[in-house]
Amino acid sequence: MTIYLNGSFMPIEEARVSVLDRGFIFGDGVYEVIPVYSRRPFRLAEHLQRLQHSLDGIKLKNPHSENKWADVLYELIARNEPDDQYIYLHITRGVAKRDHAFPNPPVPPTVFALSNPLTTPPAELLQSGIACITVADNRWLRCDIKSIALLPNVLLRQAAVEAGCAEAILIRDDAFLTEGAASNIFVVKNGKLLAPPKDNLMLPGITYDVILELAAANSIPYEVRRITKTEVFGADELLLTSSTKEVLAVTTLDGKPVGNGRPGAMFARLHPLYQAFKR
Ligand code: PDD
């Protein structure tokens, strides 16, 4: 596997980062995950815009222009197999003596990208849907930043796995839905798709945007607004989206069936639309 690190391409075995890197010490960095279909990064401009938003959020200068990023990522894709991949891109504030405040003067950021084979959910999972648990959203108040400091998300996802589930659905203040530990969540009620608002309490998902665009283009009724915990439990369907999972039906929540316990009509409409759109 060939990776990109600080301006060079190299085998992953040769890649080295200092133990003083602020990503390692403080989790002081941001990341992106970009799906690649048939060797083309999907929604690259949108991913790069969100990267810029994350960098602005942590006051870190973007090391590359949009064109330079495109060059780097296309070369990374060309140097790896297979045709469908996903890029993990990671930027930290660089290497400096440990001190919470930013290094002054600034040091060069650490810029890292790798590409893995993309395995989208298998047919069985599309047919069965997935099981989720609900958990209290105990993360910070800047969940719109795609921070590499993911310990809360790690613990929340692990709680799901220990409950035999695929994902944790996060409820803020015991009152309303935010998102999943590493995904966005939609509720379906009476034929309408409901989406939580893109605010500081959730990551503005690229897949989330595609789903809402597909709904608009196909006359599927939808509404973006706060969704209560009660509405989550009373949903006809729950949908999960992310760059690597695409669209999945959540068919079990906290051990109980969602709707009739099988992927529903909204999933049956949106999944093929997404498949057609991504190519
Ligand atoms: N995670 N919310 C959170 C907290 C996420 O980590 C992700 C994606 C999403 C979905 O965003 P998008 O549709 O842009 O992938 C929502 C990636 C896949 C990850 O951390 O691996």
Automatic annotation (TrEMBL):
Keywords: Aminotransferase, Pyridoxal phosphate, Transferase
Cofactors (names): pyridoxal 5'-phosphate
Alphabetized InterPro entries for the sequence: Aminotrans_IV, Aminotransferase-like, BCAT-like_C, BCAT-like_N, Class-IV_PLP-Dep_Aminotrnsfr
Recorded GO MF terms: transaminase activity
CC per GO annotation: cytosol
Presence of the UniProt keyword Translocase in the record: no
Coiled coil stretches, renumbered: none
Native organism taxonomy: Bacteria, Pseudomonadati, Pseudomonadota, Betaproteobacteria, Nitrosomonadales
SUPFAM superfamilies: D-aminoacid aminotransferase-like PLP-dependent enzymes (SSF56752)
Family: Belongs to the class-IV pyridoxal-phosphate-dependent aminotransferase family.
Protein name (Swiss-Prot/TrEMBL): Aminotransferase class IV
Native organism: Sideroxydans lithotrophicus (strain ES-1)
GO biological process, one term: carboxylic acid biosynthetic process
